[in-house]
Amino acid sequence: MAKKKKVFAITDAPLALTRDQAARQKRYFISMMVRTACFVLTVILPSPYRWFALAGAVGLPYFAVVIANAGRETISRNNQIIEEKPLSLD
Fold first, then answer.
1. Which helix (H) or strand (E) holds 50?
2. Which among 16, 25, 26, 53 has most CB atoms closer than 10 A?
3. What is the pLDDT of residues 31-78, one digit of tens each?
4. Nearest to 57 by CA among 31, 38, 32, 40
5. Which chain regions cross the lipid bilayer (predicted)?
6. C-alpha span between 88 and 73 (Å, rounded)
7. Structural domain includes residue 39
8. Is residue 48 part of a domain?
């Protein structure tokens, strides 16, 4: 029995690595600019609102890193971790 060749479509190809890195750097930069604005607002705003801005400035780096790292995934939809093979009784 001849083994079937796997055919790949160009639409299934991932983004180029340079484009992916540039997009992640842009997301991280925007997140850090929001964090900088939160620090500035901590100094400017009156007391009750100051704490919300400070919480944003302190908590945002964690989320910025998680969002920036969400990019190229190593497991695609078509890959299966477990191969389905029939069990033989021999």
1. helix 47-69
2. 53
3. 999 999 999 999 999 989 999 999 999 999 898 888 777 766 655 555
4. 38
5. 28-45, 51-71
6. 35
7. yes
8. yes
Please indicate, yes or no, if residue 64 is contained in any of the structural domains.
yes
Q: Are 62 and 32 in contact (CB under 8 A)?
A: no
CA distance 83 to 40: 54
**Taking the CA of residue 32 as centre, how many other CA atoms within 13 Å lie in the half-sphere pointing to its CB?**
8
Contact call for residues 65 and 28 (beta carbons, < 8 A): yes
Number of domains in the chain: 1
The verdict on pTM exceeding 0.90 is no
Residue 36 structural domain: 17-69
Determine, yes or no, domain membership for 43: yes
Q: Name the DSSP class of 15.
A: P
